[in-house]
Amino acid sequence: MRILVVGASGTIGRAVVAALSAGNEIVAASRQGAGIRVDIADPARIQAMYRSTGKLDAVVCTAGQAKFAPLDKLTDADFRFCLDNKLMGQVNLVRFGMEHLADGGSFTLTTGVLARTPMPGSAAISLVNAGIEGFVRAAALEAPRRIRVNAVSPPWVTETLLALMMDPSQGLPAAVVAQSYVQSVMGAATGVTLEPSA
Amino acid sequence: MRILVVGASGTIGRAVVAALSAGNEIVAASRQGAGIRVDIADPARIQAMYRSTGKLDAVVCTAGQAKFAPLDKLTDADFRFCLDNKLMGQVNLVRFGMEHLADGGSFTLTTGVLARTPMPGSAAISLVNAGIEGFVRAAALEAPRRIRVNAVSPPWVTETLLALMMDPSQGLPAAVVAQSYVQSVMGAATGVTLEPSA
After folding, report:
1. Which positions in chain A have a beta carbon within 8 angstroms of at least one beta carbon in chain B?
2. Quick one: closest CA in A to B72, which residue?
3. At what angle are helices B123-142 and A123-142 packed, to 10 degrees?
4. What is the ipTM, given to two decimal places?
5. CB A139: neighbour CB atoms within 10 A?
6. With a cut of 70, which residues of chain B have pLDDT below it?
7. CA nearest to B84, candidates B102, B69, B106, B65
8. What confidence tens digit (pLDDT) does each residue in B3-39 have?
9. Which of A7, A21, A74, B2 could link A63 by a cystine bridge, Cβ 3.0 to 4.6 Å?
10. A188 — phi, psi (to 5°)?
């Protein structure tokens, strides 16, 4: 399979690339790292990316930013950033990517545990993540040519917790999280949010 | 109680006003009907509304537009309209209204059945509704002074189905749906999405 991984240079993205590399051709894209440069908050850049990739069998997105801050500190601009980036960035990867996907291909987006288990400071992220899950459920019903649309909802990732100098014991290693992306790409599920577990 | 009902002239809004009228003071607001004129897609108009209402014990929103259309027909502008209107319009009612709410007050927003049970054409609405549910779960954790934040997820409403000349037998009367708003305003729940049932 020819698989586009957007966010390929991130913690989860690198693990997804490693997990999918055997037997597949990976087309890497990221905002700052290796591969095609793309900022998913910019619809024109997404369309330019797809023009350069050619036909794909799967699109995986592990990119997308959203702001963690107390609700009374989140500004109009913060919400706009979150909506343009992790929310509409991923929605647009599906909208603009549909025609570039082979029959029976798949999109796998990224939501996160805060969609369903919020914490103080997560209002914008919880909104965005839950929105992605709602979009995936609906978009799967309309995708043509047996194309599937799923999301993966990563918990806290061990490597991220370590980088933040937080207790890693509640995290799941990126390599384990990556298996849910593999399951979405290789399996038959559509319209679902996969939750990685140990 | 002094209760602001935004969307008071709509099908559900009128039923909510009727259900809450006894023993409470209703402050009505709507885009085109009676009461304070407000377009929730315009943050400045929301802030102007709150300056005119004075202190409130509860805010109920039954307003908010989103576009029903096939995914491949939804434009960038359609998504922007949905995000500005039913999604950020309701989020901003909470953000800007917090300081106008009395201790122990409540916000009750409106999501809808398409959040969890999508249908072809509902991609943008499902995204928005699910986003509202995620926001409510998170915002409830941060609301100060025992303020509660909930949503109601109406199913198809009998009166709406009749107006659309569709089979009303699958619908729930607006007066029944309104009882979930009463439950949110008068009860103790917070961070939840109430689902009206017969």
Report:
1. 43, 70-72, 74, 76, 79, 83, 87-88, 91, 95, 98, 114-116, 118-123, 125-135, 137-139, 141-142
2. A95
3. 160
4. 0.96
5. 29
6. none
7. B65
8. 999 999 999 999 999 999 999 999 999 999 889 999 9
9. A7
10. -115, 0
